[in-house]
Amino acid sequence: MARRVARKAIFAAELPWTKIREHARAGAVSLLPIGSTEAHGPHLPLNVDVVISVEVCRRTALRLLARGTPALIFPPIAYALTEFAAGFAGTVSVGRDATLAYLTEVLQGIASQGFKRIAVVNHHLEPAHFRVVHQAAREAAAKSGAAIVVPDHRWGATASQLGEEFTQGGSHAGQYETSLMLAAAPKLVTERVRAKLPDVPVDLPAAIKAGARTFADCGGDQAYFGSPSRATAREGRRLLDILAKATEDALQTMS
Predict the structure, then answer these.
(1) Cα–Cα distance for residue pair 219/196, rounded to 1 Å
(2) DSSP states of 95-155
(3) Average predicted confidence (pLDDT) for the chain
(4) 3-state secondary structure of 93
(5) Could you give the CA distance from residue 31 to residue 67 in angstroms, rounded to a whole number?
(6) pLDDT per residue over 11-57, tens digit each?
(7) pLDDT-derived band of residue 167, with 50, 70 and 90 as boundaries?
(8) Which of 46, 68, 9, 29 is nearest to 188 (CA)?
(9) Which of 180, 216, 181 is nearest to 200 (CA)?
């Protein structure tokens, strides 16, 4: 019962407007999850990035609440700039300018309701998209006066804790993301398919730097890389805790 009450207390979409106003007046931190709608191999659903970003926000909010900081999770952004997976069924990519304008206005909208500290929790790692997320945060902060942070787990100490597959760049729908999904939403993982998938050892950043423009160009003709068959829920829980702590730490740097 305690967990259910805590969950109800932190998702904005589940609250009436009067409660949102109370959270804003109490100085709550707002968390905006960002993902994408794109192919993640034959064993994972299209909403992998959304599921992961929401779960990281949930765990972050609970960490904040445990130390007395109110937190509120806004509904996730489910569409993004997703060009590398555009050739696979179900993938929906939104152009750069439209993505930038939309994200900027969403962040300004949250700030306009009185939320002065916002964390943008993005787990769609396509480089061009992540650049847009950072730019939207800067523009929204400049226009609204809110403090907006974008925790970026691709670099530094956090990245080194996320495992060899992540740091070497083959983490799309592989061991890294599949482990996260086994921890966050195991019913969405097609186990009978996952268990039979061969490894696809590709360094995605290197392939992109060499001129690849699609997952097929990178050698991922089923829209996955790495080793999904090696994923475990235990590893996923470890990764989620690292990502939540990194998000909490980023919030502590805000003025």
Answers:
(1) 18
(2) -HHHHHHHHHHHHHHHHHTT--EEEEEE----HHHHHHHHHHHHHHHHHH--EEE---TTS
(3) 93
(4) strand
(5) 16
(6) 999 999 999 999 999 999 999 999 999 999 999 999 999 999 999 99
(7) confident
(8) 46
(9) 216
Helix (H) or strand (E) segment spanning residue 248: helix 233-252
Structure tokens, 16: 């009436």
pTM of the model: 0.94
How far, in Å, are 78, 85, 199 from residue 81 at the CA level? 10, 10, 26
Query: Who's near 53: CB < 8 A, 6+ residues apart?
Result: 33, 34, 35, 76, 121, 122, 123, 124
**Structural contact between residues 127 and 218, judged by C-beta atoms closer than 8 angstroms:** no
Place of tokens 């909208």: 109
Phi, psi dihedral angles at 40 (to 5 degrees): -130, 65
Domain over 2-252 is classified CATH 3.40.50.10310: yes
Identify whether the C-beta of residue 223 lies closer than 8 Å to the C-beta of residue 193.
no
Question: What is the DSSP-derived secondary structure letter of residue 189?
Answer: S
